[in-house]
Write a structure and sequence with these properties.
Low-confidence stretches: none
Structural class: alpha/beta
Distance between the termini: 64 Å
Helix content: 25-40%
CATH superfamily of the largest domain: Spore Coat Polysaccharide Biosynthesis Protein SpsA, Chain A
Shape: globular
Mean pLDDT: 93
Radius of gyration: 20 Å
CATH architecture of the largest domain: Alpha-Beta Complex
Largest sheet: 9 strands, mixed
Length: 298
Amino acid sequence: MKTVKKAIITDAGFASRYLPITKTIPKAMVPIGAKPAMQLCVEECVEAGIEEIIIVATPDSMAREIYDNYFHDKAENVEKLLEKQGKSERFEPVKEVLNFPKITVIEQDKNLPYGNGSPIVSAKPYVENEDAFVVLYSDDLIFGNSDVKTLIEAYHQNEDAKAVIAVTELPESVWNKYGMVALKENGTLSHIVEKPKTPDLSPSNLASYGRYLLTPEVFDFLVPSNTGLDGELWTVDAITKLAENGDVLTARSTGKWMTTGDPKNYFMTLLEYVLNNADYKEEVIEMCYNKLKEMNNK
C-alpha cells in the first residue's frame, strides 16, 4: 500500500479583505472559538494520521515567525504563572498544540507568480519524493469529519490515480462563486469550470474547494511558466492537466465545508463552530432569538 504521510497547508496571501487585522497577523490565525483557523486544519490532518505538516506562509511578513511561535514555543512563563495561580488546567490546550506531529513552517518563494499554486510549488522539496501528499487551503474549514481522511481512503481504493479532489453539492444560487466540476463518463474528473457566469454553464452541482490529494506528477504542470487566468498560477489548471493523463478521482465530503474567505463568511463559520462546540452555545442562540424578535417588532 502506498503511503500518504505529509500535508501542505497554505496561507500565502495578504488577505486584504480582512485589513486592518491582517496587517499584523496572518488570516489563518484569526480565531474560530479559542483556536486559530490554522489549528483546525492541522487537527484535520492529525485525525487522518498525517505525520508531517508543511505550513506555507506569506513572504515579506511576520507570518512565518508567528506560526513558528504558535506551534513550537513552549510558553514556559505562562505555564509557571498558571501553576502559581492554581490554574494549570488552562495550559492543557497549549500542551496539545505542542504535541502535534512535526510542523515545518516555510515562506512562499516570492519569485513565483501570484496564485494558489505557488505555495505548493514552494513546498515541493518536502513532498516531491512522496507517493502522494495532501494540500489544504487554510480558509476552507471542514466540520464533522476529516476531508483529509476521506481523500486518503479514496486514494487507497485506486492508488494508480493521479490525484483525488474533495467535492460537495451546492445550490444553483452559488455556482457562480466556485469551481464547478465536470466528470468523465467513468465518474473521474474531466475539468473544473471556474465561477460559471450563469447556471447553464456549470457542468454539475458539484463544487471543488481547498482539499486535494496530489501525486508528485503535479509538479510537471505546476510550474511558473504555466500561468492561467489573470496571469496567476492555478492549482486547478495543473489538476486538469493530470486528468488529461490519467484518473483524477473525486471524493464527496462527509463533513460540512465552510469558508473564511471574507469577513461575512468568517462570521458564518465562527457561528457554526460555536453552535456545535461551545459550552455557551445556548446563550448565543437565546441572544440571536431575542434579537430576531426585536427586529420583527420594529
